[in-house]
Amino acid sequence: MMRRVRTRLLLRSCTAIFALLAAVFATSPQAVSGERVKNRITHVLELFTSQGCSSCPPADELLAKFADQPDVLALSYHVDYWDYIGWRDTFGSGHNSERQRAYAKAFSNKMIYTPQLVVNGLYDMVGSHVGKIERMMKKTQLPAGGTAVSVKIQRIGDSIHISVGPVQTPPGERKPMLVLVNFADSAEVKVDRGENQGKVLVSTHPVRGWQLMGMVGSDGMNVDMPVSSVLPDGNETYGCAAILQAVRKDGSPGAILAATQMEIDPD
């Protein structure tokens, strides 16, 4: 009798454990497909930074903390204009510097600087000023203006599909643009020269490239691209983000209307 009781208890325990494991794997995107998607983003934080800038490491560390939040898309745009000091930024890009200059035009800034953080395309500030960043995040969140726009991303086999719902633009205003950003998960880099000589710097979501996919109107937009364009050879986790952003009358970037993010683990 005791053996039967123990057997029944053991079977119940095993059943409970299997049920728990099944629930865990069912709710974990990584366990099923190796992708993690953020579709309900309320804040897009764009940090313009450089491995050659001694003021940037605190901002880099702060961005890493924000990136862990489920409703935040955090991106590190490494610029190239500090390379002359003695260290060539491993992620530095003139294209990233162009995006920062476009924001400078939008904000009527006379100069560009690092570390600069832009919140939802609306406000810019020093990227290490945590108090001001948090205040600006409370002040604004997506969807801007209370009008939700659908932007979704998903992997279908060897392709990535991005869909944007219809957008009604008032007469006389420019249509918003869809921006595609490719980024690495994170990276540690030992700096041998320049202002940060001897330091090991950690970059969160360093941007590897970004491009304008087109303007979105009343018909919406659908984009398909190969996974290989986001996931290069190697054993690192990479990702992409789709950002729908308003365009000001002068052509400079405006408020971010919606965004989504996907991280992909190597196969």
Straight-line N-to-C gap: 50 Å
Largest sheet: 5 strands, antiparallel
Binned, the helix content reads: 10-25%
Instruction: Please give the order of strands in the largest beta sheet.
Output: 1-14-13-8-11
CATH superfamily: Immunoglobulins
The name of the CATH architecture is Sandwich
Approximate shape: globular
Could you name the CATH topology?
Answer: Immunoglobulin-like
Signal peptide: 1-31
Protein name: DUF1223 domain-containing protein
Keywords: Signal
InterPro entries: DUF1223, Thioredoxin-like_sf
Give an overview of the whole structure.
The protein is of the alpha+beta class. It has one domain: Immunoglobulin-like (Sandwich), CATH 2.60.40. It is 24% helix and 35% strand. It is built from five helices and 14 strands. It has helices spanning 2-27, 29-32, 57-67, 94-107, 130-139; strands at residues 35-38, 43-49, 72-78, 116-119, 123-126, 151-156, 159-164, 177-184, 186-190, 200-204, 207-215, 221-226, 238-247, 253-264. The strands form four sheets. The protein has a five-stranded antiparallel sheet. A four-stranded mixed sheet has the order 3-2-4-5, sandwiched between helices. The longest helix is centred in the first third of the chain and has 26 residues, at 2-27. It is globular and about 50 Å long. Residues 1-33 have low confidence and may be disordered. Pfam families: DUF1223. Residues 1-31 form the signal peptide. Keywords: Signal.
